[in-house]
Write a structure and sequence with these properties.
By secondary structure, the chain is mainly α. The protein contains 14 helices and no strands. Helices cover 79% and strands 0% of the residues. The longest helix has 32 residues.
């Protein structure tokens, strides 16, 4: 799937033009984005520590950070494997039950999902003209022909979604007795229980101000990781912070796609967005996507590999005090 999307991203683009863009790029901005990415991962470790500590388990920030980076490294090999991997690593190192750690990761992801939804809503209204025009081109015009109202294009899409949602709810209620007997329904129900449980566990964190600050820093640094590389290329240097939010919101969909490291999906989404929303030349768009994705991948390979080596060199911690107490 990733290879197919990568092919689509580079389709009809002259590689020599992309190579020219990459040769003329100012890579100091990309180095800055790599440093900020490392900082964002550190704040993620700090936030994860808070969730672990509220369960009465003690961990060192540096060990948690190493585990986070090893998790990102695992994602390059197998999508969504990182969450499990970092829990396994920290569980073995700090002698904390895996189930407790995995529950805290679910809580993290639930909260990040809420933040991402908020960002998407902000982007939708901040970029209503561009996004409305984009929706008009790809959804409204193919169905209704020429249509010029960008605002009404968004309204129509939302109205259609509401109608489809209502119809889906009616059908669901009719079929619910039968659906309860299926494995898919039971898995979805378990997922929703975990989702709500994750939100409730966040409410138990002692220092909520610190938790929200760490979350804010994670996402602010994510945004900076996207905006700084804008200035590496002449064509993308005209984009601003609001455009960066749009890339963050939509580009995140490419990263979470079920392909290793978001390769292909990220390139395709970024290229389509830059060319369709901002009329940036395709060769500059794919050059930005390639350079930024490569920079973050190199960072994860280096930081993840070093973290793995450093954890191997450190002696394992004795049985966690909280685990000992619970076993008595």
């Amino acid at each position: 799937m990733g290879i197919g999307l990568l092919f689509l991203a580079f389709n009809n683009i002259k590689l020599e033009e992309v190579w020219k863009e990459l040769k003329e790029a100012n890579y100091s901005w990309l180095l800055g984005s790599m440093f900020l990415a490392l900082c964002s991962h550190y704040f993620r470790a700090l936030r994860w520590n808070q969730l672990i500590n509220q369960m009465q388990y003690k961990t060192s920030t540096i060990t948690t950070f190493y585990s986070v980076m090893i998790g990102y490294l695992a994602n390059l090999a197998l999508p969504r494997m990182g969450e499990v991997t970092r829990c396994v690593v920290l569980s073995k190192k700090e002698k904390i039950p895996f189930n407790a750690l995995f529950g805290s990761v679910i809580a993290e992801r639930v909260f990040d999902l809420v933040v991402l939804i908020i960002i998407i809503l902000v982007v939708l209204f901040a970029q209503i003209k561009q996004i409305g025009s984009f929706l008009n081109r790809i959804l409204i015009e193919p169905i209704l022909g020429s249509y010029t109202g960008n605002f009404w294009a968004i309204i129509m899409v939302f109205f259609t979604m509401i109608v489809l949602t209502v119809i889906s709810i009616i059908i669901f209620r009719k079929l619910k007795p039968w659906l309860k007997t299926t494995m898919l329904y039971q898995k979805m129900e378990a997922f929703l229980d975990g989702f709500m449980g994750g939100l409730r566990s966040i409410n138990k964190v002692e220092n909520k101000g610190k938790f929200f600050f760490n979350t804010l820093m994670i996402w602010v640094l994510y945004l900076a990781m996207i905006v700084l590389p804008f200035y590496s290329f002449e064509e993308t240097s005209v984009l601003d912070i609001v455009d960066g939010l749009t890339v963050l919101a939509i580009g995140s969909l490419g990263i979470i796609a079920p392909v290793p490291g978001g390769i292909g999906s990220y390139h395709f989404i970024i290229t389509e967005m830059f060319t369709q929303l901002y009329q940036i030349p395709a060769q500059a768009a794919i050059a930005y996507a390639t350079a930024n994705h490569a920079a973050q991948t190199i960072l994860i390979l280096l930081a993840g590999g070093i973290s793995y080596i450093l954890l191997l060199l450190n002696k394992r911690k004795p049985l966690n005090e909280s685990t000992t107490k619970n076993s008595k």
